[in-house]
Amino acid sequence: MTDASEKVEVITSVQRRRRWSAAEKMRMVEESLELGASVSLVARRHGVNPNQPFTWRRLAAHGAFTAAAAGEEVVPASDYRALQEQIRELHHLLGKKTLEAEILREALQHAGSQKRIAAARATAAARRFPVKAVARTLGVACSSLAPKPAPARRRGRPPAPEDDLLARITAIVAALPSYGYRRVHALLRRQAEEVGQPSPNHKRVWRIMKAHGLLLARHAGGTERRHDGRVAVPERNNRWCSDGFEIACDNGERVRVALALDCCDREAMSFVGTTAGISGDDLRDLMVAAVERRFGRVNRLPQPIEWLSDNGSPYAARDTRTFARDIGLLPKTTPLESPQSSGMAEAFARTFKHDYVRVGDCADAQTALRSLPAWFTHYNEVHPHRALGYRSPKQFIRAILTT
């Protein structure tokens, strides 16, 4: 008699999930395909759930013998081969595009930053690619591709017309080509004061001269020795200085000039010029001419005045020093190896050569000697001096006498 009662299996311990190998799964699938067998019978025989052999049999029916071990869904072999071929083509295309990108990036590196930025801006302006991708690919900053703000509108009044001022500046520079913008501004200010008009700003004069190429080249002199002394004095007729310099003419002749200069108002009181060397007699004549120019025909100065010079033989001669003391001058010579002590006379000689000799007519010695009086007159009457507030020596003297 058959027992039809339901049997229940009681699990009394922790059971681990059984792992089936691919061979065992295939054996169960083959058993389920035998004549008179079923999935439920095979599952009951091996103690597994019927859905597992059913799934394995379905996967095996599609040719996925290896996938049965992992329990994954697979594709047919033909599709697999087609996908592999497509992957190989994509790899080839990716390598080709990567090589092209590297070549372009290397070429842009040699083109310079400005050309790279220009190319990046043109590419980003087309709006086909993200700006960040363009900047990263071409190796430029994203900020350089940002749109530039429109220039701000000019504030304030429009600039004053400069045609008239430019014409006056050009006339001054044509007559005095060695003048910089400061002395050109001084002459313009002097012209404006004569007609009662406001003078132009010196910065405006500099801007116009720079825009039209009228500025002087910057002086690039060497480092000079430190000199803490002061040659200039605050009052006139307290110290005079003297020095000599040489003018080289175009035909090779030489003209030697000596002068006397007031250390306060910078007036060139007297000068002597000769084609021979400066002698003691020439210096004594220079002293007499300076005294008569300042004090008239007197035998002796009303007060002692220092006579500053270097240690040249005409200045250091006994007769020259004795004559200077007899007329009231106090001869003072510069210390040895200290040419800065006669720096005012040295500076005058340098300025005179730069502003008059270099641009004047020095074809021969006689021409240069005939030009000396006009040059010294122009220096005293017109030449602006920075220490005098860009006034000429005569203007400075007249300003002192009227106050």
From TrEMBL:
Full protein name: IS3 family transposase
Alphabetical list of PROSITE patterns matching this protein: INTEGRASE (PS50994)
Domain Integrase catalytic: start-end pairs: 230-401
GO molecular function list: sequence-specific DNA binding; transposase activity
Annotated organism of origin: Neoroseomonas oryzicola
InterPro entries hit by this protein: HTH-like_dom, Integrase_cat-core, RNaseH-like_sf, RNaseH_sf, Transpos_IS3, Transposase_8, Trp_repressor/repl_initiator
A Pfam family of this chain: rve
GO biological process: DNA integration; DNA transposition
Gene3D superfamilies from the UniProt entry: Ribonuclease H-like superfamily/Ribonuclease H
